[in-house]
Each structure stands twice: as C-alpha cells, then as structure tokens.
Amino acid sequence: MSEPTLTDDLARALVDVSADGLAVIDAEGRFTFVNAAGAQMLGAPPAILKGQASPFTTPALGQDQAPANVRWAPPGGRPRELEYRIAMGTGDEGRAIWFRDITDTQRQQERLTAIVRVASNVTESASLAATLQAVAAEIVMTANIAAVQILAIDTPDAELRVLGMAGFGEAPDFADRLRACRRLGADIRFLDAFADRRQVVIPHRKAAIMADPAWAPLHEIMDRPDWDGFVSMPMTVRGRTLGVVNAYYVPDDGPGPVTFLAAMADHAAIAIDTAALLAQTRTQARSTERRKLARDLHDSVVQQLFSMRMQAKVLHSQLDLDGDPDRLRRPAEELASLATTALADLRQLVFELRPLELVEQGLVEAVRRQAAAVEARTGLRIAVHTTEARIEASPDFQEDVYRILSEALHNVEKHAQATTADITIEAHDQTLVMEVRDDGTSTTPSTDLTHPHGLGLESMRERTLRWSGRITVGPRQGGGWTVRLTLPLPGLTEVTT
Description:
The chain has 497 residues and is of the alpha+beta class.
C-alpha cells in the first residue's frame, strides 16, 4: 500500500496557516516565495520581498544547515532577531527556509542574565559606587537601551547625586549641567517618577529635549547616544524612594514592558539600602568603642590627673611653711600647670568621643552647651529656640543629631562670615526637626555645603540616612543659609516638654 501524499492545494494551505516563516530562495539567495507569517516578520508584503536578497546565509549546495540566528532590520521597522534553518533542495528548485522571530525571547534571556549578575554584585561588592556602575553597565548591555543613569535624590528640591551612568561617555559634570538646566526652567520629568513613586514613560523624548533651550547645557551630553524614548523608574525600598533609574531607548524600539527596568531599579535600591545599613553597623561599632574609651579615660586617667593637681596644690601650700620654699616652689607650680592642661585636654577628648552632656542631660542641653562653647570661643552670637525640655531617644540617635549640628555650626563659623546664628529644635508627631540658620553674607559659603561630595555634607547625609531622615542645605530669602534636618523619632521615643 502506497503512502498518502499531500496535494498541492493542501500543502499550500499548510504553508499559509503556519505561524512560522516559510520561504524559498534561489541559488543567488533571492526570495522566490514567502508565506504570510514570514512576510509579517520581515516587515514587507510577499510581492515586495519577491526578488529581494534574503538575510539568510546559505550552506554549500547539497548540505542542510543547523539552526542559526540573523539580525534583520526592515526599512522603517524595529530590528528583529530571527532564528532560521535552510534545507537544500535537489536541482534548481531552490532552498527551503524555516524561520521565526526570537527577538523577545533573546532579550528576556539577556535581561534575566543581567539580573542574576547584578544580584550577585549587590551581595558581594563592598563598594556602592562600583556596584551601581555595574548595574548601569548591565542595563545598557540589553538590546534596546542605549544609555542609563542611576540618580540618588533626597528631596525634589535638593541636589541629586549620580551613582551610576553608562552610554553617555565621560560626563563628570553631568550634575552641574543638570543644575543649570533646572535654573533655566527645564521640564525634568524624572522628578515626577521620584515624587509620585511611579514609572514615567515618554516616547520621542530626545527630540523634545534637543529642541528646548532650557536643556542647552546638557545638549552635548544627551546627543551622544542614539536614543528616542525615555523611561524613569523610581528606586523604592522599605517604603522609601531613594532616587530613580533613567533608561534611554534606541530609536524605533520602544520600551515595551518595563518589568526588566523595574527589577534593576529594585536591585539598585537594595544596594543603596544595604550600603546604608552596613555604614550604620560600622558606625555603631565605632560608637561603642568610643563610649568604652571615653568611660575608661574618665574613670582612670582623668581621675588620676585630678589627683595630681590636688597633690601639687597641697605641696605648694606646705612649702609656704618651710624656711626655704623657693627651692621646691617652681617645680610644684609646673606640676600643677601641667596637670591642669592635661586634665583640660583629656576632658575635651572625652567630650569629643562621647559628649557627656548627651548621657547625663540629653540632646537639648548638649546643644545649648555646644552653642555656648562656640559663642565663647568665636564671638558668634547663637540663640537656641526650643520648647523641648528633653528628647528621650537612643544614645546613637542623639549623638548623630548632635554631630550634624556640630558640623553645621562648624561651617557657619568657618565659611559663612556670619555674626549671628539661630538653632531651632522642635519635636511633634514623632518627628524631630532641627534648623541652623545664619546671617552670613557669603554666596558660596562652603565646599562642604555646596559640593555633592564634600566630606562635611556627606557625613551629615550619612548620619541622616541612617535614621531614614532628610536634610536640606541652601540659601534662604533675605541672606544667610539654612541647614534643615527632619528625622522620624524611633518608635520607643517619647518627647517631653
């Protein structure tokens, strides 16, 4: 019994209903036939494709080819990744080709690989900058993203920090140029993503930016990569938005589903949060050691020096009764002077290691004494305004607030050219607010206060982030500068007035 054979009509019907691409090319590699599904993948009607050169590489005559991939960019269409296989015919009837579109599958595999690599970096890398630069590089390696930025933002009005960037080439002054664009009134849409905690998707964003004079300071940098659409994804962790990841998509290839970018933004947020937690742990360890050292100094060396001074005074008084006191009077006076100086220095060291006022009398009184000490030393008139008698919080919390205040006063003293300063401390609704305002005349008071990487401001920011707070620094109307600190009080904290 002979095997059944397909009629021409049935074979043609199977070809037409196939979801995969089916085609025939001649010996020169030109299309002689393309089914409907294949024509849709190739982006042109079968009548147009007939006679055109195919993108498929053909093997030697008489050999079949294992599956291979080829990139196809139809005129005016999105580039596609095609998987294909060629079966050689016998004679001159041509070569049969099967192909399918694997663009989305390929991208998904690339993105999953990138996510795995980034997750490994987050857990293993000790450097936040290196980790986030790696995250940016992994994002740009995907097929349809031309460039990316990872930006940390404290508040919409505050200065931002560039934590990672790829695809733009060297751009060390990006933040400065962006500040200039903000002053010119540029429409900075990623601030909407930060404020609203939702993704912002804008097609054809590059054309709008390049045509807007307010973006002129950044035109040169933004024109480097070949991009068109824009997506800004907020970085959120533990209910806090830390910044945004901005992705710039290649032309004719929009963002589509942004689950990949959302996953990468989550990893970036985790990296930032982990770095903050590690810094907090290290700081707590150092604080514990400082407390122990301060206690040891106070209980041993300070007490001994105090006794030395008392003994020297007793010796001095006894010498007054001797017949020839001059012989021992001068050494006794030197002993008393040295002990007094050493005692003062050690007390200052103990105070720097752990201000005893914080332990004994609390934050508010420590702030008053610090203000009085600066006022006595410099002549700067400092007023402390508060209705709080005492703020009951952990020693670490109080010390961080105290150190931020000390740094703010140091900048006023050193850079602001001020004559007066006002400190305000308020606590309500489980929130502590502290402001340091001065009447300085300097327009650029301190590198620490204006430069995003200044050590003074960086230390203040780190201490603030440790307690999930916010700090803003800048000029105020009428002259002078303001440092404003807002911190949620720990859950067990009670504020008494």
